[in-house]
Structure formats: structure tokens, C-alpha cells
Amino acid sequence: MADANPQLAAALNADPVVACADLVVRAGARQFEIGYLRDGVPVDQAGWHASAYYGGARLTVEEHQSPSTAALALAERILAGATCKCRRPVRLADDASGCRWRLVGARWEPGCTADPIHVDGPRGDLGAMRRALTEGGGTDG
């Protein structure tokens, strides 16, 4: 792959980064950041990181070999322990019970067809999200 067009390679790796940015917003974060820690080294040694900012809290992954692997790691951290709109636990593996989420192009998608859940509250309001999950919406179809 050393002879591959670098622009083509970058385009092929863009989906996980775009999907992570979308997921960060859908999960209520106020900001998404991706970058690297070290200059003047090969790309895979730059120490790529990705962060999502939720009010005063920051969720970060560090020391990855590329922007796409950092984005995938952050998305997995966001989805780990999450509850889907169908009220089942989010799962990233086929061998686990719950709602299986997959990276589909430039978006993380649930395996269910449940209706969206409406959250009454400001972005990132965990209490409002919990109330919305317990009060209604989100039945698997």
C-alpha cells in the first residue's frame, strides 16, 4: 500500500472520523476535537488523540496510530455502556445481547428500527436523557 495515492488513502479513512464527530453530537457533547501530540515524526508515531467535551467533562483517547483509529476508539468509549433508543444496551459485537451498533459509511447506526427519543432539556443533560428513556419513545420495531 506504500504506492497508494495519499489523498485517496485519506478519503478512505475519513468515514470513521466523520462518524465519530456525528456520534459525539448525537450523544450530547458540546465539542469534538481530533489531533496529534508529536510533530516531526512519521504519521503513525504522532500520537493521535480524539476528545469529546460534555459541559465540564472531557472524554479522551490518546496515542493512536491515525486519526481514524483515534476516532474509532472514542466512538467505542462513547457507545460502551450506552442505552439504545430501543432501551437495550448498545453492543459492538455480534456475540453480545443488546442492540448491535455498526459503523455504516460515515455514521454509527443501531441495529433496531425504534423511533427516535425526544429529550426535553439542554444538550448534554444526563437527567433529561434518563427521563426520556424511562418515560416513553423508543420501542423496537
Shape: globular
Compressed to H and E, one letter per element, the order equals HHEEEHEEEEH
Strand fraction:
15-25%
- Secondary structure category: alpha+beta
**Which parts are unreliable, with pLDDT below 50 for 5 consecutive residues or more?**
none
The percent range for helix content is: 25-40%
What is the count of β-strands?
Answer: 7
| Largest sheet, strands/sense/barrel | 3 strands, antiparallel
- Radius of gyration, in Å, reads 17 Å
The termini sit apart by: 43 Å
- The tally of helices reads 4
Q: Going across the major beta sheet, what is the strand order?
A: 1-2-3
Oligomer classification:
single chain
Average of the residue pLDDT scores: 85
List the helices and strands and how they pair.
Elements: H1 6-12, H2 14-26, E1 31-36, E2 48-54, E3 57-64, H3 67-79, E4 90-91, E5 99-100, E6 102-104, E7 107-109, H4 126-135
Helix pairs in contact: 2-3
In short:
The chain is of the alpha+beta class and 141 residues long. Helix content is 30%, strand content 22%. A hairpin with a 2-residue loop joins strand 2 (48-54) and strand 3 (57-64).
Could you characterize the architecture of this molecule?
This protein has four helices and seven strands, in the order ααβββαββββα. The termini are far apart. The chain is globular, with a radius of gyration of 17 Å. It has helices spanning 6-12, 14-26, 67-79, 126-135, and strands at residues 31-36, 48-54, 57-64, 90-91, 99-100, 102-104, 107-109. Strands 1-2-3 form a three-stranded antiparallel sheet, covered by helices on one side.
